[in-house]
Amino acid sequence: MRRSIAAASLVVGLVAALSVPLPASADQSGTTPVTLSITTGTIDITVPTGPVSLGTVAASSSPQTVSAQLGNVTVTDNRGGTTGWVVTANGTDFTGPQSISVSAPGSSSYNTPSATVTGNAIVNASNLDPLYPPGPVQTATSVSGINTAVWNPTISVTVPADALAGTYSSTITHSVA
Asked: Which H or E element spans position 39?
């Protein structure tokens, strides 16, 4: 009987040992997905604060043209994407002792030189003649990431024959989109 009790204890011990879960086999590698985000920046334009003088002419019975460089215009594209941009410009009529229109063909112009570009963008210049209505003066395509463009346009205005003597003023507006 002792033998059968010992044998029974051994069988119970073996059954108990076998019912304990064995450790799972360990993985040799594992993966974890990770992400990051890059936020977009802004696109900005800076223009000369002026005032800019186009020059001085004497009163005359003949039309005369005055011209001068406006100063550096700069587009800074910090959006970090692939979307191009367009800069438009326009001018208002000159006001003074009389009004000098900038809307008629040949009355005024915005002569756009090629821009100095940093970063990845192709920027093409367009002249604006006349100064009003607004029109494109620089267009960026093939943009990839951050870029800047700088140019110094020449503004020309035809002073009509028999214009009254005095000081005249206008405003040049640039916008980027």
From this structure: none
The string of pLDDT tens digits covering residues 96-114 is: 999 999 999 999 999 999 9
Please, what is the end-to-end C-alpha distance for the chain in angstroms?
100
Residue 107: which of 161, 47, 59, 57 has the closest Cα?
Answer: 161
The structure tokens 């000098």 sit at 100
- 110: tokens are 């915005």
pTM here?
Answer: 0.82
CA gap 157, 155 in Å, rounded: 7
Strand partners, 44: 76
Burial (Cβ within 10 Å: 0-12, 13-18, ≥19) of residue 130: buried
Strand-strand pairing, 135-151 and 85-91: antiparallel
